[in-house]
Amino acid sequence: MERVPVRELDAKERIKSFNEVCLGYSEEEAIKEASRCLNCKSANCVKKCPVGIDIPKFIDHIKKGEFKEAAEVIFMYNNLPSICGRVCPQEIQCEGGCVLKNKGQAVAIGKLERFVGDYVLENNLDVVKRKPMNGKKVAVVGSGPAGLSCASTLATLGYQVTIYEALHEAGGVLVYGIPEFRLPKEKIVKREIENLIKLGVQIKTNVIVGRTVTINQLMDEMGYDAIFIGTGAGLPKFMGIKGENANGVFSANEFLTRANLMRAFLDEYDTPLKIGKKVAVVGGGNVAMDAARTAVRLGAEVHIVYRRTEEEMPARLEEIHHAKEEGVIFDILTNPVEILKDDKGWVKGMVLRKMELKDADETGRRTPVEIEGSDYTEEFDTVIMAIGTVPNPIITYTTNEIKINNRKCIIVEEETGETTMEGVYAGGDAVTGAATVILAMEAGKKAAYAIHKKCHPGEM
Amino acid sequence: MYKILKKKTLAENIIMFEVKAPMVAKSAKPGQFVIVRIDEKGERIPLTICDYDKDLGTVTIVFQVVGASTKKMSKLSEGEFLLDFAGPLGNPSEFVSLNTDELKKKKFLFVAGGVGTAPVYPQVKYLREKGIDCDVVIGTRNKDLVILKDEIEALGCRLYICTDDGSLGFKGRVTDFMKKLFDEGNSYDEVVAIGPMIMMKFVCLLTKEYNIKTTVSLNSIMVDGTGMCGACRVTVGGETKFTCTDGPEFDGHLVDFDEAINRQNMFKDEEVRRLHHSRECSCF
Q1: Distance from the CA of A67 to the CA of which of A185, A396, B170, B250 falls in 20 to 30 A?
Q2: Contact between A25 and A62 (Cβ < 8 Å)
Q3: pTM > 0.80
Q4: Is the ipTM of this complex over 0.85?
């Protein structure tokens, strides 16, 4: 039986709006797709899931139309299935382990998870089991995937949790980074966060830990028993090439924050967003695809400029596929060497150099090498740099006890997530450098259990 | 929500708010800034801190009405609220890390341009409370635009006013007056200049001639103010820095002001204005 196709907005229509592209499964479609699962003994899908969700079990409930029971299974492992179902790279995780993958098409585990998550939100179900309050207080710094996951786990274990968020809205990268058309803010993110508040978690926005209040103050003056740092990797990298500070060169973070967090694409919002007729997005990751597809929706001709080939792109297949459907042009084996500006300091184009692939490096990706004498110039009005991010240094600047490595990532004990400062834990991109939503959520959850073990030894 | 406890018009289009924000007040130091958002649809506006009272839990900000957002903000009254008030952001002024003995060896000259007088005030106040010698020059177009004159005088420092039209104090630019000060034999260990980019640029050109260390506070365009967007990047000594996390104060002799001026004008473009009812928030 063929994988049940998921309904999507037509490419020609969807580029005119920021509405969600993927429409998800209906109940009938979900049951039909669930029935494809062979419930195999090996269950490689579970092994490849970073949080180890009992996938065959929740799928079995869907098969029988027991959606609430399916949710109860998922929520034992993951409190944010509507988000993970949308943004996890399932093709290399759960679905990558599915036996049906070799026979053609893996079970659409991600879409089924999303279906269950949305079912919970739409029907306002309470599927989380929680322990009575235990009188302990934990501060969580950052309200992105790591922080949300840590906070929700601790709340269900009976802790009084307060999340401190630097921006004016909770959600971290789920709000400022991932666009509306991939992860709806009102319908999904806000509601997931509201569910967290229902669990008793307090969220304080506009608090920049490290500036408004330090880690030491949280510990000593405000009496927290433990602290979790999930501040992500928010600092954009630039290439360091000539002309990069010209007007019209944005980091993907800036471009996406203006569009997503500040809703600059809506006329009634005050934040401006400048977009030309022809836009280059430099990079080949998910953030590059998000920036490119956002630029398409703002009416530009958009080029992805990437120094390797499509095969090496770190972006999810689905994102590359969607970007292409939406008319994004892929300029592969191409690397910018200079940004050209006009006499008013605005971008007018780039000098690009052709590349070729040589042998694989230690990460297994083939190394791009410049082709001499291949430079050419192409006109662009806007350049968006999407070549990665590094962790934010504000906390580690102001808290010497917390040590970082040479990649500016917080050093933690692998097992527990505890930093070099006692009682302070960290996880997610702040520790690993830019990675995925689900890995951050796993780290948040792991630290929550480590905190629990420390506060209540023997009670796991 | 952050309550506006006091509102005062300091000069035409220059307004002061005293805002209840105890956590910000408790941690604020001279040189730092806040990000303010008026309402749900508003942009994030960076504004330097003009004063703070840790006991009362208040922070004073001063802003100039230059665009749609600051205009909207100017219409708020005492008792009304700002939706968001995040800070303190950026690094405190360098001298905050020095002890009083080290500071006592120094003589500072502060040069404030227009609304730039507001961020100069807490720095002079901090130093004067420690008994450090400071001279202050305020430059504006005319006498009606001079702000915080009495407050700065009350700190017990020498205050000079320069106006373009000569309606108060010295007639001419601050750089002309500074040259006069230097040539009359006044010597300074450090100059701190805060005002329009173009003023800071020319102050730095002058102090370079006289070989006096000069610190400037940049009012770059920002979105988040925490290092995330990189909109505020500026070239300092050939390296790209972020005003929000590396600044806002930099060695003025190393700043590429021409690039900084270009970048500050990024959203003054006509096309963007039409789309987005104009924007401007250079209120440092």
Answers
A1: A185
A2: no
A3: yes
A4: yes
